[in-house]
Amino acid sequence: MRYSRHFKERAVSTLLGSEPADPVVVAKSVGVQPETLERWKHELSLPPVQKATPTGINRLDAIVATSSMTEEQRNAWCRSNGIFPSDLAQWRATASQSLEQQTGTDSIGRMQRARIHELEREVRRKDRALAETAALLVLSKKLDAIFHKDADE
Question: CA angle 109-126-131, nearest 5°?
Fold first, then answer.
């Protein structure tokens, strides 16, 4: 049978009124099972709970706070802060993986910067060699123009 919200609220208010009543007595008076009345009380008294997602800083704080704890201490800490130990372990793994990737990126960046420096040095050397070759070519043409050899000589 379906009961209206108003009916449920009246039954729960009778149960939780100024003088709390016995759930079994109230359940019999309204014509429902005591378990049903308890469920209604739970549904009506608690607003829908939405689990707040911890921010990155909060996750890092939790990892640091629990890093030196034993498993029992860590489990107690998780219970008192409303965090699942599996979530804490997942946050730790994610943080470690992120740090490893960043360290790898730094070493790749360092290697790439060294390679760029080496290539730039090689380009400067080749540029100087090309300029010297061009100057020698120009000078050789000028020399030929000054000391032009006739075909009969």
Answer: 140
The amino acid present at 115, given as its one-letter code, is R
Q: Which regions of the chain are under pLDDT 50? A: 48-50
Per-domain residue ranges for the chain? 5-45, 56-146
How many other C-beta atoms can be found within 10 angstroms of the C-beta atom of residue 94? 13
pTM over 0.85: no
